[in-house]
Amino acid sequence: MASSAHKTRLVAGIPVIDTPLVQSALDFARTHNDAMSFNHVHRSWVFGSLLASKLPEFAQTDLEVHAVSAILHDLAWDHKSIFSTPDKRFEVDGANAARDFLKRQASHFNDRQRQLVWDSIALHTTPSLARHKELEVALCNMGISADFAGYEFPGGLISREEYRAVVGELPHLGFKEEFKKLMCGLCVHKPDTTYDNYVRDFGERFVEGYSMQGKTSVDRLMKELV
């Protein structure tokens, strides 16, 4: 069981950490995300908490760091967000917004905890890196991935009953199509931030006029070497 000296409460029958900071993060996310996005980040936190309870390697996870990271991880995935900038990936904008939130709300966090939140959010779409970072970073990525994979999450760690209970309490609200719209919106309005990551796949498949011509890593590196 992941370690925590804090009290807990149940969400869909799953124990989650319950602190003033976590409640503040939930309020902040609810204010700055639409209902679909808020339910997604909330589910991601709950699924991460469930995974942490089942995997012994996460016994020493800082569950408050994980909670804040998961809850605030998508503050800027909508290009219209007040936290969105024209030149940064949405993950970085979200990580910066969370760091500013912590400066105001988490005086008890040390520099390492604040950095773990930033890293968790900045790397949450990059499992090939996140899974090899600190426990909190890896767990944040895993919980988010579980919200997409559901009971097909590797290892049989999330049962159909557990998944359905979480989605029943925190419904999808058109998650699949709304997620697609958000990613396509980034490709239309912030294309330069999408060429080196998975968002480009949405642009190439769904956005008319989006092109990777001259934008790949090979293109850039060969140009710089001339």
Describe the structure concisely for a colleague:
This is HD domain-containing protein. This protein is mainly alpha-helical and 226 residues long. The chain contains eleven helices and two strands.
* Secondary-structure content class: mainly alpha
Unreliable residue runs: none
What's the overall geometry?
globular
CATH top level assignment of the largest domain:
Mainly Alpha
Q: Give the rounded overall mean pLDDT.
A: 95
Q: Proportion of β residues? A: under 5%
Protein name: HD domain-containing protein
Organism: Penicillium argentinense
Polypeptide structure, described:
Helices cover 58% and strands 4% of the residues. With 226 residues, it is mainly alpha-helical. The chain folds into two domains: 8-173, Hypothetical protein af1432 (Orthogonal Bundle), CATH 1.10.3210; 174-226, no CATH class. Helix 2 (35-54) packs antiparallel against helix 3, helix 3 (63-71) packs across helix 5 and helix 3 packs across helix 7 (135-149). The radius of gyration is 18 Å and the shape is globular.
Question: Which keywords apply here?
Answer:
226 residues, mainly alpha, globular, Hypothetical protein af1432, single chain, HD domain-containing protein
SSE layout:
Layout: E1 8-11, E2 14-17, H1 20-32, H2 35-54, H3 63-71, H4 90-105, H5 111-122, H6 127-130, H7 135-149, H8 160-169, H9 175-189, H10 199-206, H11 217-225
Antiparallel strand pairs: 1-2
